Amino acid sequence: MSAQFPEGFLWGGAIAANQTEGAYREDGKGLTTVDLLPTGEKRFPFMVGGLTSFTPIDGEFYPSHQAIDFYHRYKEDIALFAEMGFKALRLSISWARIFPHGDDAEPNEAGLQFYDDVFDELHKYGIEPVVTLAHFDVPVHLVKEYGSWRNRKLVNFFETYAQTVFSRYKNKVKYWLTFNEINMLLHLPYVGAGLVFQDGEDEEQIKYQAAHHQLVASSLAVKAAHEIIPNVQVGCMLAAGMTYPYSSDPDDVQDALDKDRDSFFFIDVQSRGEYPGYAKRFFRENNISVQMEAGDEEVLKAHTVDFIGFSYYSSRVTSTDPEIQKNTTSGNVFGSIINPYLKTSEWGWTIDPKGFRITANQLYDRYQKPLFVVENGLGAIDQANENGVIEDDYRIEYLREHIKAMREAINDGVELLGYTSWGPIDIVSASTGEMKKRYGYIHVDRDNQGNGSFDRSKKKSFHWYKQVIQSNGENL
Fold this sequence. Notes:
With 476 residues, this protein is α/β, with parallel strands linked by helices. The protein has helices at 17-20, 43-50, 70-84, 95-98, 109-124, 140-146, 153-168, 189-193, 203-228, 250-272, 277-285, 296-302, 322-325, 353-367, 393-411, 460-470; strands at residues 10-14, 88-92, 128-134, 175-179, 233-240, 243-245, 307-312, 316-318, 328-329, 336-337, 371-375, 416-422, 442-444, 456-458. The chain has a single domain (10-470), classed as Alpha-Beta Barrel (TIM Barrel), CATH 3.20.20. It has 16 helices and 14 strands. Strand 9 (328-329) and strand 10 form a beta hairpin.
C-alpha cells in the first residue's frame, strides 16, 4: 500500500524577494547585493566575488530592479496561487526593505508594512507564509562598509533584523528559514554572503570565517524566534542533491562523501549544534583558522533548528579519474560528471527523481528531524501553441516523477512537512538573470531584456498542480 501524503501537508510554491519584487528603490528600500548583478558576461565573475562597483553600472541591465513587479502585483499573484489551492507560499523578506543600510538605528516602516500586507493577503486565502530571512540578500552598505559576512558585526545586525521581523509578524508567520541554501556561500560567495575579494586574499579562510558568522547568526535567530513567537518552527536550508561516485573505486566513493560533507557541514552545525570532526580536520590541513568568540559554541549547541529545509533539483556525480572528469556539465552551479543513466534539462541539470528520494532519506537518516522540500522544479524554455497556451508537459512530467519519489520517501518513513515547488510563477533566474529559463505554472510576459507587459497567464501545469493539491498528491 502506497503511503498517503499526511493530512495538513503544506503544498505550495516558493519565490524570493530579489527575483520577484522589483521596486528596487521604492518606499525607502536600500540597495541589496543582487541589485548589482547584471545579465551577461559580468554576472558570473561578480557572483563569485569579483564585484567591481557598489552602484549599478551605466549601460548594464539589472533584472532585479523590476523583476516581475510582485511588489505592485502581489494581490493578483496570490489570488492565482489561491486558485491552485496553495496551502503555503515560501517567500523571503528583503533585509534592505526593513533596514535599508543594514545598520540603521530604526527599521523602515514602509518596508515592514509591505510584508504585513502580503501576509494578510495570504491569510485571506488560508495560505501559510513560510518566510526566509536571508535569500541571497545583503544590504550593499554592509558589504561596502564592513566587508559583509567576513565581519563579526554582521551577526549583531542580523540579530536585530531577525528580532524586528519576529516581533512584527509573530501573529502572522510561524514557519521561518534563516539562510537560503547556506552552503552556496562556498560556490557563489558574493551571492551567498556578499563577499567581495581583493587580489591575493585567502578566499577559503574568508569564506569559512563568513560561514561561522552566518552559523552563529542563524542560531541567534532561532533563539529569538523561540523567545518571541509561540509555537514557532524555524528551519535551516540546504542546496541538496546526492553526490554519486562514478565507480566503485574507493577513491571515487571517498570523493563523493567529501563533496557531500562540504554541504552537510552547514546543516551539521545548525541541526546538531557543533562543528563536525571532518570539518576540523579540513581546517587543520588547509591552514584555515576560524575565529570564534567566547560563547559561540554554547550558542550553536543551545539553539539548533526545528526542521531541515532543502532544495532539490538534481543529483551529481564525481570521479577521481582525470579522463572521466573531462565529461562534465556545469548544471546548477555544482559541476558534475555527466551521468550516463540520466537525461538532462536544457540547462544541463541532471533529471533524477530517484535521487530526490535518496536525498530525502539521506537527510532524514542523518538528522532525524522533519524535512521541508522548499524548492524543486524544472527551468525550461516555454513556447505557446497556436491558441496562445503553453502546454508544458515536460514540466508536468518532471514534477510528477519527483512527487512520486517524495511519496516513496514518506513510505520509507521520512517525515515531510510540505512541498513548495520553485518558481510557481515565472521569475528572474538566480544563476543567469534570464527570464527565458522559466519554472512557473503562471507565465509572465517579460523577456531577457526587460521587455513585456508583465501580464500573467496560466500554463497547462497550472491546472495540473491544482488537481495535485486538491487530491493531496493522489491525482498526478
